[in-house]
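Quick one, tokens below:
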């Protein structure tokens, strides 16, 4: 009997270990599944907006060299995302789901990375909270469903932060190499990665235990940064003029709004933002009072990375190098989430340290309140994500729907629209091109497309001989259709002057349209 017991014990012990391992990791598996559920099923639900469509139409070409050349002359990001996008188009095509899939996968992969960050900073409780907030935060979900660089920017920056924390805890050669490699990948993903990497490098150089090992990592990152300088010079801030036209105060106000209700959450109003912010503020306030030494150090590290990621671009903007668009700060929301997770973990894990019974009960009550506040925050974030998937007013403009209303577009049709609509319409309506400056086009139908606010003369014929035959509203995108009994020559200048809105106009024509030089000069 004893022999049987002896042989059974190792098996029982192994089963117990496996059971403990399953209990330890099932929350992460559940959160990864939740992140996938919020991102993948609706990945192709929304139309491409301007930047996504511009990449699909004007950046991704058959040859890699043409793609990289277009990236250097029309974009302002390093090459990694465009390399991945080019491969993606070659393998899966250029549909919404295909082009957005890399971003969705990057967004899902950020969840376990956030888990690792939270665990390194303050332990398992912070790991669960950080991963949960990243899984459901509407800003991270939004960019996980966009065919642009930002989800990959978040993932690579988060990975660099995780490698930094592990190198800080144990400065081995392998861990420093992992930090250098992940930091280099972040740099070739988005230039704003440098603002997040800088405090990490400085912290490693400051700590005596990591100083010598960090020199090699710093040298590697400096080499990668130097290699990017020619590309930065070639790109030259192309297409970033809109940033300076947006008041700096409004941009800074948008940063917390984006984090709380997502990129498109402004229509929800400040009341909803406040309702979501209150449990975060209350929970983190409780956490400040309950921080252990380890949690305090973790909070300081996250705060240092966050401060550099936000304040360094702000200082540059004030100095005249203004590239501070809220979307460029999206990766800085990872250390912000980590900071919130550490503080909430401290609050939810408050122990009954005082000896008196009533003080112990008070600590326990505070922990329960903090747990409730954490759950309310996660549920509120998830609710906003669901609302976005159900409400067209919170989604990207429905240019796919507009294109359906415009079809068929032939050689005798011209589309006068706003600049931000030109690339989506080129993507969704085959055969369109821009009408060259100083040209007239022979047309019998003029379609004016735009969005509120419309100019005062909206609805009036844009040229003699045309009359309004239809007005269409597609989820806030307005189309006026004008027709003439016989084709007439209309100049690009006249079409631009009669644009539906005050935004910068563009004129699109079919590739088979007949054009000729206009009599009058055109300066814009």
């Amino acid at each position: 009997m004893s022999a049987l017991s002896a042989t059974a014990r190792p098996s029982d012990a192994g089963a117990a270990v496996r059971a403990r391992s399953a209990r330890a990791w099932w929350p992460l598996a559940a959160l990864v599944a939740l992140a996938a559920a919020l991102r993948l099923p609706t990945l192709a639900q929304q139309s491409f907006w301007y930047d996504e469509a511009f990449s699909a139409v004007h950046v991704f070409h058959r040859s890699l060299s043409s793609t990289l050349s277009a990236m250097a002359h029309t974009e302002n990001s390093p090459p990694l995302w465009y390399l991945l996008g080019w491969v993606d188009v070659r393998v899966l095509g250029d549909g919404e789901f295909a082009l957005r899939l890399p971003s969705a996968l990057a967004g899902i992969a950020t969840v376990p990375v956030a888990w690792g960050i939270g665990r390194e900073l303050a332990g398992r409780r912070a790991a669960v909270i950080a991963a949960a907030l990243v899984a459901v935060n509407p800003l991270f979900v939004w960019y996980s469903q966009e065919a642009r660089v930002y989800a990959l920017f978040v993932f690579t920056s988060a990975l660099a932060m995780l490698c930094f924390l592990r190198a800080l805890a144990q400065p081995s050669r392998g861990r420093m190499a992992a930090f250098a490699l992940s930091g280099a990948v972040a740099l070739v993903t988005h230039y704003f990665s440098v603002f997040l990497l800088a405090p990490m490098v400085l912290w490693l150089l400051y700590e005596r235990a990591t100083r010598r090992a960090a020199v090699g990592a710093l040298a590697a990152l400096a080499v990668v940064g130097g290699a990017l300088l020619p590309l930065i010079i070639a790109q030259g801030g192309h297409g970033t003029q809109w940033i300076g036209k947006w008041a700096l105060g409004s941009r800074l106000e948008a940063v917390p709004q984006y984090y709380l209700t997502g990129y498109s959450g402004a229509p929800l109003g400040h009341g909803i933002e406040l309702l979501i912010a209150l449990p975060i503020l209350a929970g983190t306030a409780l956490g400040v009072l309950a921080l252990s030494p380890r949690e305090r150090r973790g909070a300081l590290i996250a705060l240092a990375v966050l401060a550099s990621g936000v304040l360094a671009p702000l200082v540059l903007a004030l100095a005249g190098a203004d590239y501070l668009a809220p979307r460029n700060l999206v990766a800085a929301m990872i250390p912000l989430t980590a900071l919130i997770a550490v503080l909430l973990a401290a609050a939810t894990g408050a122990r009954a340290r005082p000896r008196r019974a009533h003080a112990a009960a008070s600590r326990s009550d505070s922990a329960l309140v903090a747990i409730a506040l954490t759950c309310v925050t996660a549920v509120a974030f998830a609710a906003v994500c669901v609302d976005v998937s159900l409400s067209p007013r919170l989604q990207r403009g429905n240019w796919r729907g507009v294109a359906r209303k415009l079809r068929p577009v032939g050689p005798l049709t011209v589309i006068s629209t706003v600049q931000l609509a030109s690339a989506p319409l080129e993507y969704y309506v085959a055969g369109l091109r821009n009408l060259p400056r100083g040209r007239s086009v022979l047309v019998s139908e003029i379609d004016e497309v735009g969005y509120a606010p419309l100019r005062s003369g909206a609805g009036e014929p844009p040229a003699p001989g045309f009359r309004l035959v239809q007005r269409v509203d597609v989820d806030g995108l307005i189309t006026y259709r004008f027709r003439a009994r016989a084709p007439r020559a209309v100049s690009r200048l006249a079409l631009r002057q009669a644009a539906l809105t005050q935004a910068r106009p563009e004129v699109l024509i079919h590739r088979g349209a007949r054009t000729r030089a206009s009599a009058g000069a055109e300066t814009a």
